[in-house]
Amino acid sequence: MAITFGADPDGQPDTPRTPGSATYHELSQPTALYNWEIGLHSVLLAVDRFFATQQFDEALQVARLVFDPSSETCFYRHDNPNSPLYWTFAQSCWKFPPFQGIAISIQERQKVDIKLGDLAKDSNFNLAIMERRSHGALVHATARGRPEANMKWIVMKYAEILIAAGDAHFRQGTLESLPLAIQRYVEAGHILGPEPPKVPKLGNKKPRTFANLSQEDAQLELGLPFSSQLKKGTQQQLDADPKGEQRVCYLRTTYFCVPLNPKLKQLRSLLNERLYNIRNSLDIQGRPVTYALIEPLIDPGALMAPGMGMSEAISVALGDQNSPLPCQRFEFLLHRALDLCSELRSLGERLLAATERKENESFSALRQRHAVAIQKMMLDIKNLQLKEAQQAIDSLLINRESQVSQLKFYLALVGEPESIIPTSTSNWEDIAQNIDTPTKDDLRMSSYEKMEMDMTTAASLLNTVAAGIDGLVGPLCAIPEIETMGAPMGVGASVTVGGQNIAMMTSAGSTYLKMMAMMSGDEAGQASRKAQLVRQLQDRRMQANIHGREIKSIDKQIEMQKIRVQSAQHEIKMQHAEIEDAIQAEKWYRTKYTNKQLYSWMEKSLRSLYYQAYILALNTARKAESSLSFEQGRKISLLRPGGYWDSSHDGLLAADHLHLDLKRLETADYDAQDHDFEVSKTISLRQIDPLALLSLRLNGSASFSLNESLFDMDFPGHYMRRIRSVAVYIPAVVGPHTNINATLQLTSHRYRVSASASKAAEYMAQDKDSFRTDHIPISAVAISGGAGDTGVFDLTFSGPKYMPFEGAGVISTWRLDLPTEIRKFDYESISGVLIHFQYTAQEGGALLRAAANEAVRSTSKAIKTEGTQDGFWAMFDPKNDFVNEWYGFSSRLIAAKKNGSEETTSKMELGNLKDRLPFWSRQQAKLEVRDIVWVSQSSKLVNGVAIQGVSRPDDGSIKTEALGKCTTATWKDLHVRSLDKWAVEASTSVLDENDEAVDNIYMLIHYVFQ
Fold first, then answer.
1. What confidence score (pLDDT) does residue 437 get?
2. Which residue windows are coiled coil (predicted)?
3. Which residues of the chain, if any, have pLDDT below 50?
4. Residue environment code for 697-732, b if the CB has 16+ CB neighbours within 10 A, otherwise e
5. CA count, 13 A, side-chain hemisphere, 891
6. How far apart are CA 814 and CA 680, in angstroms?
């Protein structure tokens, strides 16, 4: 049996023909609607529901039943099965047969120009307009006439699902999930295709009416170059660019045009933003992010947490573990998450209420439809009842005729006239009965029955006596006979007396009795017959009376049935009215504003809003959890890794479960509020890394590191050292109204989280379990003052946001950048950089204190350990630190150069340099200089300088490097144990011919304690 989809190419039902030659309408045939519902609308509904519940893979799988852009279809013609025909992508991607034909039709229409007149003649086009006007509020009615709208919706929904799936992978923030996100985004880009070309604006368009447009032909004729009104002119070049190289594009447009689809434009814009972020190391919000090469270990307990079903992916359990830390504090985020949780609960209640209302409206509409059907069925029942009443009247009339016939029969038997038969309006008078008074005994017999009983009893007695007499005849016959003869006068008679004579006389008496008994029996029979006839007459009269009364009863029943007929007719009229009322009520339920469609729309919208609010609340809760973990310096996992959304119940209790876990986070914060040491420390860049200070002076940029020993010298045994604030001091010579502008950036940091080290080797080991690195919210600030500048206007720790560098470890690497394009002051006037740290720490105990002290001693003795700095540094600026000595030193060199003395040597006394070291360095009994680094813009000066009292290494062992515009020369492995009476020497050979001053030179010494 062929499956029809409502194709009507020539006004005929579906026939096997080439796709594209027919137009499709789901209401054109009875079975087409069901096929469209099964093949398209049910699929679209499932896709929309899966997408609403964030089941992207299932949504794509179902969507591919209609639209599969990854397929390549080959089909065979119905007229030639051996000839395969491959479809292009435009047709093969559509799995729904009508869309395949429509795709071909679209391609065919693109090859020809469509005129407005052709559209006016198109019956399908007119039908679509009629449906649109008839069902203005029903978008599906419009889509019936334009199936291309459904096709566009599917394509946009498919791309939207791909982008949403990519966002889900992008939000995980791991190197494993980024390729999956890119794959989804690229696939969505292929679906959306390239952006349409930007058409240049044609200028202001003059509004025109239909009357103006209808005169186009006449205006064209007037504009032709054959008019006599035109003046003859000379030939000229009409096109200054005959090759068309300067033309932007050719436009073939009409006055009316179709604007771009805003949904497609929005999807393309969102896709471009996502691809730009993911390809430029930005997170989904556009913030810079650095992804770890090695992901953190998976917590097996997190996968077994409540709410994690088998359908939950491991990626969901990992969540946003590498996402940037929020800028807000835990307390603020907790209150915000609780507020969102309350709003989420309210939305859940509204969603449940909307669902209940939708179901109530559906039930009310269904009940009303059933009421209409029931009322129609009741009308049928009423009609049947009317028919039944009418047939009952006919039946009663027939029954009355039967009763009249029987009454006539009985009246004839009793001898009564037929005139007494009652009519429908007359009454029946019973025939009188003559009944004798019955006997008083138990039998209550009539007189004839009494006579019959008496005569029967008498006859029975007579027969009994006669029988007894007959019994004596035999014995009497045995009596002998006695004969007596008397013959007087010869004439006589003989008399014989004997048994025979007596027996005969006895038998004669018996016969007489029998005769009397027979007479009594005859009288009894006559009495019985009379009693029977009397009873028969009485019975016939009674039957006549019964039938007469039955006739009147039937008359009454006929009257009742007539009343019932009238009642049924009235009920039928009422039923028609009830049906009309039910139809109007059903129509009202169907067309009222607060109907099922409204609540379905509300339910769908609220479900989407509810899930978005859930995601917002969950993300805020996870941010609060991350903030709590960040503030406490340990991993806290109290929220369910898989979330709280139960798709089978629309996540209705997600807010309650989330609220409970938020309260657990609040309790965990209260339980862990221990006292921390609050420490302040000022670090001089000149003391810890003078080479970085020189780089800042010369190049405007410096990178430096702070090791743990700098802080262990102050408080050995502390751990969990975390920055609260950083202030920068840059002393320099600047002009009036000139700011010192710089950017301070934290490039890396860590802090010790374990206090288990008991020896220096364990303390100095770079064990990853002993240190922790967090993603801090603010890792760079802009310095605009240079005098205790923290990078913020109001340094407060009670606000909702973290301060710059708050929470970072003091074991850190920094970068300080000054503007390099335009220098507003002389960077070489920077005497140093002071960084003031405020940090918190915890006491690690005696063992950790001993290990820290031993590690500090090892560092001061330059015992090399991986990741630690060897010894200490000091920088001397002779031009600024030894002003008088430098002036004499440089003046003598310049004077000797002018006098032509080539080998004149100038000396600059430095005195005891140990007095210029920090106090804690001066207190050390034994100090040894390991290396000396010279830095100057003059390469001759760094290579020609010497120190009196220090053996200059061979030229081959001196390491020379470039530092921006400067040159550095490093003297290594000196082992000089005295800093007293040092003098810098240089000859005039370090100067060029045109030098009028000696370039400044910096001396950096690297020393250790013995």
1. 81
2. 379-406, 551-585
3. 1-2, 9-22, 75-78, 86-87, 116, 119, 225-253, 305-313, 315-317, 319-320, 863-868
4. bbbbbbebbbbbbbbbeebbbbbbbbbbbbbbbbeb
5. 6
6. 18
Calpha distance 252→248 (Å, rounded):
13
Cβ density class 200-231: b for 16+ within 10 Å, e for less: eeeeeeeeeeeeeeeeeeeeeeeeeeeeeeee
- 743 forms beta bridges with 782, 817
Q: Taking a C-beta distance cutoff of 8 angstroms, is the pair 706, 868 a contact?
A: no
What type of residue is 612?
Q
pLDDT tens string 788-833: 888 888 888 888 888 999 989 999 999 999 998 888 888 888 888 9
Coil/strand/helix, residue 257: coil
pLDDT at 242: 47
DSSP per-residue string spanning 407-424: HHHHHHHHT--GGGS--S
Burial of 170 (0-12, 13-18, 19+ CB in 10 A): buried
Of 38, 37, 22, 29, nearest to 6 by C-alpha is: 29
What DSSP character marks residue 827?
A: G
Q: Is 298 helix (H, G, I), strand (E, B) or coil?
A: coil
Place of tokens 């301070």: 744
Q: Which residue has the tokens 């430096």?
A: 704
CB 540 within 8 A of CB 413: yes
- The DSSP string of 461-478 is HHHHHHHHHHHHHHHHHT
Angle at 201 (CA atoms; ends 196, 206), nearest 5 degrees: 125
| C-alpha–C-alpha distance, residues 25 and 732, integer Å | 83
Q: What is the DSSP letter of 118?
A: H
Distance CA 69, CA 94 (A): 8
Q: How far is the C-alpha of 797 from the C-alpha of 678, rounded, in Å?
A: 13
- Would you say the C-alpha torsion 748, 752, 753, 754 has a positive or negative sign? positive
The pLDDT score that the predictor gives to residue 295 is 62
User: pTM value?
Assistant: 0.60
Helix (H) or strand (E) holding 873: strand 872-876
Angle at 161 between CA 158 and CA 166, to 5 degrees: 130
CA distance 886 to 907: 9
Q: Where are the alpha helices (DSSP H) in 878-936?
A: 878-881, 883-899, 919-922
Calpha distance 689→684 (Å, rounded): 8
3-state class percentages of the chain: helix first, strand second, coil last, to nearest 5: 50, 15, 35
d(CA 778, CA 808) in angstroms, rounded, equals 10
d(CA 869, CA 707): 7
Picking from 705, 711, 713, the residue whose alpha carbon sits closest to that of residue 688 is 705
DSSP assignment of 811-823, as one string?
A: EEEEEEE---SS-
pLDDT at 187: 92
Asked whether 791 and 783 are in contact (CB, 8 A), the reply is: yes
Cα–Cα distance, 698 to 706 (Å, whole number): 22
Q: Residue type for 74, please? A: C
Q: In this predicted model, what pLDDT tens digit does every residue of 907-961 receive, in sequence order?
A: 888 888 888 887 777 777 778 888 888 888 888 888 888 888 787 787 667 788 8
